[in-house]
Amino acid sequence: MARKTTIPPVPRRGSRPFANWLPAAALLLGSWAPLPNQAPTVQDIQVAGRVLHFQEPPFSGEIVVAIVYDQLLPQSLAEARALAGLLGAGLTVGTLTLQPRLVEQKQLAGPGDFGAIFETVGVSDQLLSAGMRSHRVLCLTRHLDQVEHGACVVAICSEPQVAIVVNEINASAFGLRFATVFRMMVQEI
Amino acid sequence: MKKSFGLAILLACGATSGASPALAQSFDRNALEDMFGEPVTTSATGQPQRAREVPADMEIVTAEQIRRTGADTLPDVLRFVAGIDVRQYGLQDASVGIRGYDTALNPRVLVLLDGRQVYQDDYGLTVWSLIPVALSSIRQIEIIKGPSAALYGFNAVSGVINIVTYDPLTDKVNGGRVMGGTQNQTYGEAVATAQVPGVAGVRLSAEGFRSTEFTGYGQGDTREQPHSGTAAVDGRFLLGHGIEWDLFGSIGSVDSNYYIDTGTYTPIAFKANSLRSALSADTPIGVLKLDYYRNENRTSEDRAAEQGSGENDHWREDLNVVQASDLFKLGTNNTFRIAGEYRDNSVASLQTFSGRLGYTIVAGSLMWAWQILPQLSLTNVIRVDDLSLSHDGGQFYIPTLGPLYLDARIIEPNFNSGLVYKPTPYDTVRVTAARATQIPVLVDFGFARTYGDAIVAGNTGLRPSEVQNYEVDYDRKLAVLDSTLRLAAFAQRMDATIGSPFGSGETLLPTYQALLRATNFSGSNEAGGEIGITGSSPNGLRWNLSYALAAVRDSTPEDVLSQAATVSFQRQTPTNSVIAGAGYTWRRLDLDVQARWQSHIEDFALDTSTGATAVIVVPDYVTVNLHAAYRINRLFTASVLAEQVNKQQIAETAGLAVDRQFLAGLELRF
């Protein structure tokens, strides 16, 4: 069963004269980063792994990726299982090896040595925020709305072209930074 | 210190299990290309960008494409790129033009190796075989079609070719290649990389070429056995997190025939060496870069008849360049690059420059990239160059005209603007406008010599040539065919074209001496474009088809142009060209064929019996290359290349006809 969460509006800082009409204009001009409805692919994981490479400071070696899902939502569980299946016993991307761990959203704020969070469809933003506050690690998702209107930091899309959207305010709120060059090559909102 | 700080943050966060902090480059091209699945470049604006998003018409030739040509020279690689003209005067002498305006020793294309200028400002030419790079160490060749002076300064008027090599810090390139074939051609290259992972990498490379020159009558004095060799060392060191130091050095020499702007061959010996030190750091105020390099080029005419007589021209060019820049992002939608450059360029020769002639350039530039909407960006780059020309040495007096060497100053602003609109993930539209300036090369400014009753002289009063360019491009990714369609249409105007001392015609002085002097001519207009499609299929098939139009109209009167080879662009530009190619990979075998047709041109040749310049019609021609490569095992690949397989001889120029060539090669990669 699909569940819609109510989240407080994300505070915007500074002067952003186009902030109000940007989404509307984006809709008029066409979809920039289409929402992936299909199952996750290994390309999605590879893009996510590369994004982790551009964190400041960068990591190398093995990190545990918490794949967060809502157990009451079949689509969320299916996406989580698909992601975990793609990662298998550990997937190496560049200098990082990503180890999957399925985490129910209510357990996210609890103990765990996660290096990153992968948010699946339908996860509560309040629970995600609590988990991110607890772990202070990067959240990635395939669902643009979770970055545009939620607490997640990076939305990725690997087809038909790679697109990466970073919510800079969310990143700052959780003390997350990226390499300068990376920031120049992705869309920051 | 920085590493310790990073570690402290990591421990405080308790974020990872087996992860450890790592040093990272300020610009990790490998990681970026892996992430985006397409080439990444900084050549268009100085800002790292995905190839699809650059605000310029850029073509990227990848390492794989280079390998599939089987070529042993850079011009042979470039020959099958839409919009590029390669005119081969000899086995080691090729002039390369972008969108026409190609002349012998073309001074209008700026050629760089990893951002370092390898174009020579003394005579205004690129000696391709003097570029210290082995083909197997090239990651990609980035070709900007159209002016790009706002980033690179003077002389990037037709376009820029930036040869990008593999990063010795992250890319391990080891191996060698030998080729041999008709006309006693032998080519060899070797590359070796040593790395301390994540900390340092050093790459050594060397290549050499020797052959027998094309057969047939060559105007002037031709050398039978052109040969060349270069060696380079490139070390990159990660000094700290985001702090990188690049140290590069090279040497090289070429002995070959060159078809110069007199319309004759002259044997020339080039010797070059270079040194570069570049530091970059990703800091809280942006990516800071400090780059210094020096190029030393020695040019010596080597006509056999004049050896030992002191009549052969020779000089030495010294170029010192310091560049500093800061690339930073303000907010979420604005990226800036502030840069400054100091350049000291001089030639020295008592014989041909009456001492030392040189200029200094102080330049400042600003790049602003504004992401107006997710699909729409606007990039503006403006640069102002201030050139001061001076001469040390004895004055050269031209009878009845007075002294040649006068101090001069040129201040020129240039700009590039580009609007990029991506309405869908499949489509990109670009609208660009640019102003660029071509300055006279040092020979144009101050060559000075008397040959019998003829005086050849530069002109310190020359005006720079201004180019204005407007362009619309459209790229479409055709997912069904796994192809990319590219269209470009442009119009440009060039004012005050610059004629070299040898290629501007002659006048008779009241002293009855002939004066050949560099001078400005009227302008030239051009309209044209390219349309092309490239694609590949998962079953190993690949193809490309393109058409280029370059319609040039010179404003200078016809009777003047017929004696002025260096500014007679309309004659020398092939108006139409078509390139078609196909390839197939079957198991261990790669088969590729490339064909190019171009319409006729008119080149120039000096009639040595009369001393007059004659216009030579070069008919349209088709050239077809075949290449086959077979991977013997994990280490070795054998290949055969048949260049110009369709015809024994083709006249590409007013000089020697190009012979059909067969080459066989063996490559080792590990």
TrEMBL record, chain A:
**UniProt-recorded name of the protein:** YfiR family protein
Organism expressing this protein natively: Lichenicoccus roseus
UniProt lineage? Bacteria, Pseudomonadati, Pseudomonadota, Alphaproteobacteria, Acetobacterales
From TrEMBL, chain B:
Origin organism of this chain? Lichenicoccus roseus
Gene3D superfamilies to which the protein is assigned, alphabetical = TonB-dependent receptor, beta-barrel domain, TonB-dependent receptor, plug domain
- For this UniProt record, give its keywords in alphabetical order, as a comma-separated list: Cell outer membrane, Membrane, Receptor, Signal, TonB box, Transmembrane, Transmembrane beta strand, Transport
This protein's GO CC annotations: cell outer membrane
- Where does the record say this protein resides? Cell outer membrane
The family annotation for this protein states:
Belongs to the TonB-dependent receptor family.
Q: Name one GO biological process term.
A: siderophore transmembrane transport
Signal peptide stretch: 1-24
Mainly localized where? membrane
What name does the UniProt record give this protein?
Answer: Uncharacterized protein
- Where do the TonB-dependent receptor plug domain residues begin and end? 51-160
According to the UniProt entry, its GO molecular function terms are: siderophore uptake transmembrane transporter activity
